[in-house]
Structures are given as structure tokens and as C-alpha cells.
Design goal:
Largest sheet: 5 strands, mixed
Structural class: alpha+beta
CATH topology of the largest domain: NADH Oxidase
Strand order of the largest sheet: 5-6-7-9-8
Number of strands: 9
Order of helices and strands: HHHHEEHEEHEHEEHEE
Bound molecules: flavin mononucleotide
Number of domains: 2
CATH superfamily of the largest domain: NADH Oxidase
Length: 282
């Protein structure tokens, strides 16, 4: 099926070779061990699937990211930016962006660092790519004990430590965290109310393969704007694809995030876009 697709579509696939190159070079250089980002081969303190299982949004930070983790994540952000033709970088100096948001949702404290995600070249899939690669960075951070939270609305864009704040589409706050306190647990319970069951996350016309269900299970753990979980995965006519009801608000970002989780667990590659196909590697 993959080989029958027109060349123009082929160009839109993330190539396995590219992703493997990123996974191996960065990890081997930094840690001296091998992590295949998508195949999950090799040893690691915590792999990205384990990170997906324990990740929750963190809003109370006790300090900036440690130096070694900062340069590791920064280097990875640069590599992903090149792959996706977007601009993702890790930055210090985010504290002023979070002054003045007092509603419980979005009540951040101690934010110093964060990823700034954006870029000048807005392709049709720009926001989805930010979601996909941003979430891989979130999971890498989680695996190192760095806390994160995607922030689409509750920050001041005009206070960003960037020469072109208007080119930043979304932020991921990041930093040192300790065990969740009462405030964070309360926000978690509030936003997690009404979370979808697994069966509400997919549609199928026959029993789907195991890899598909593994993918959905991991996607169910993904963060989404106001916990909306707008992505539905489909197994129809022997083909897997993902859709969102519309491309408004942050739904393309949510779709990129959910696709990243799905690909990690299922093993394979996504076609960008609403209704994009998944090509399993098995
Ligand atoms: C695209 C996107 C935008 C978000 N924007 C905000 C935000 O502005 N403020 C905030 O406090 N949390 C924000 N979040 C975090 C979500 O509220 C959180 O992911 C969701 O409630 C699920 O909780 P969890 O991440 O702990 O699983 C955002 C998440 C995503 C994916």
C-alpha cells in the first residue's frame, strides 16, 4: 500500500531513516547508549513509552532545568526543528510570561524555562508538526525527571524572551519539579474529569490488530488542550488513520501529540494531516 502512494504523498511521510538518525546520534553522543526513538530498542533510564505512562502536566516548578538536561533537550529541539522545518528552542527567562494568570487552570508557579515552538514557514501541517515533535521533547524531558506542561493560552506572549514573539505559536513550560502538591493534584482532578474511555477513542469495522490497540492505549495518555481529547483513531478497510472533527483552536497540535504517542507504541509512520494514514513498520 505504501508503495502505491503517489510521490507527493511519500514526501510528506516522516522517513524512518531520518527519525532513526536523530534517535541514535543524540542519544549515543549524550548517554553512550542506544535509543531507537520509534522502535524503543536498547537500554535507557526510562524509555519514552514508560515516560508516556507516567507523564502528567506539571504547573509548579522548583527551579530551572539542570545544565546537562538543558543542553541535551536543546540539541534535540534543534534536530527536530530541522526535520520538521519548524522553530523549536529551549529558553530561559520565561517567568514574566506567567505573571498575572490566577485562575486555577493555568495557575503556574516557578516557571523559568520552556520550549518556544513556532517558526516563520507556516505549512498546512505546521501546528501538527509542533505537536508531534514537541511531545517527543516532553517525553524525553519526562524520562529525565524534568516536569512539563503545554501552554497554549495562559501565558503572556508579549513577555516571551524572543526577538520575534509573534512567531511563537505555543509554549511548553519545563523545569525541576518535586512530588505533586495539593494545588497540582486539585487541578489534575478538575481537568481530568470526564476523560474518554479507550473505546471512545477509536472506531473500527472489524477487530483491529494488536499494534493498533497498543497505539490507541498510548494515545489515550496524551495531553490535549483543556483535556478535550479530540482525536479519533480509525481502523477501516484494513487501514489505520486519525481524525479530528475540525482544525480549529489547538486541535492540530492535539492531533500531532496523539499521533506521536500512537507511533511510539504501535511502531510505524504517520502521514501528516486530518485523516492521515498510519503505516505500521511490521
Ligand atoms: C495544545 C495544548 C494547550 C494547552 N494549554 C494549556 C494552558 O494554556 N494552560 C494550562 O494550564 N494547561 C494547558 N494545557 C495542558 C492541558 O490542560 C492538559 O494536558 C490536560 O488537561 C490533560 O492533563 P494532563 O496533561 O495532566 O494529562 C494544554 C495542553 C495542550 C496539549
Amino acid at each position: 500500500m505504501f508503495f502505491l502512494l503517489p510521490a507527493v504523498l511519500y514526501n510528506d511521510f516522516f522517513t524512518i531513516a531520518q527519525k532513526k538518525r536523530v534517535g541514535y546520534t543524540v542519544t549515543e553522543r549524550r548517554r553512550g547508549i542506544c535509543l531507537d526513538v520509534f522502535g524503543m530498542k536498547g537500554a535507557f533510564e526510562m524509555n519514552l513509552l514508560e515516560a508516556a505512562a507516567i507523564r502528567v502536566s506539571r504547573r509548579s516548578f522548583i527551579g530551572p532545568i539542570g545544565e546537562e538536561d538543558f543542553s541535551y533537550l536543546q540539541e534535540l529541539a534543534v534536530q527536530y526543528s530541522g526535520l520538521a522545518e519548524v522553530e523549536i528552542r529551549l529558553s530561559h527567562g520565561l517567568a514574566p510570561c506567567f505573571k498575572g494568570f490566577h485562575a486555577s487552570y493555568g495557575m503556574f508557579s516557578g516557571v523559568e524555562d520552556g520550549f518556544l515552538l513556532g517558526g516563520a514557514h507556516h505549512t498546512a501541517d505546521h501546528m501538527e508538526k509542533l505537536g508531534y515533535y514537541g511531545e517527543l521533547l516532553v517525553l524525553e524531558a519526562t524520562a529525565r525527571g524534568v516536569g512539563t506542561c503545554w501552554v497554549g493560552g495562559t501565558y503572556r506572549q508579549d513577555m516571551l524572551p524572543s526577538t520575534s514573539p509573534e512567531l511563537v505559536d505555543i509554549v511548553i513550560a519545563a523545569g525541576q519539579v518535586k512530588q505533586r502538591g495539593l494545588k497540582e493534584k486539585a487541578i489534575y482532578s478538575m481537568v481530568h474529569r470526564g476523560r474518554k474511555s479507550l473505546s471512545q477513542m477509536y472506531r473500527c469495522d472489524e477487530t483491529p490488530p494488536d499494534w493498533f490497540l497498543r497505539g490507541v492505549e498510548c494515545a489515550a495518555l496524551a495531553p490535549s488542550a483543556v483535556n478535550r481529547q479530540p482525536v479519533t483513531f480509525h481502523w477501516m478497510d484494513g487501514r489505520a488513520f486519525a481524525s479530528v472533527p475540525d482544525m480549529g483552536d489547538f486541535r492540530p497540535v492535539d492531533m500531532g501529540i496523539a499521533k506521536a504517542h500512537f507511533a511510539l507504541a504501535a511502531g510505524g509512520d504517520w502521514q501528516w494531516g486530518n485523516g492521515g494514514n498510519f503505516i505500521p513498520s511490521v
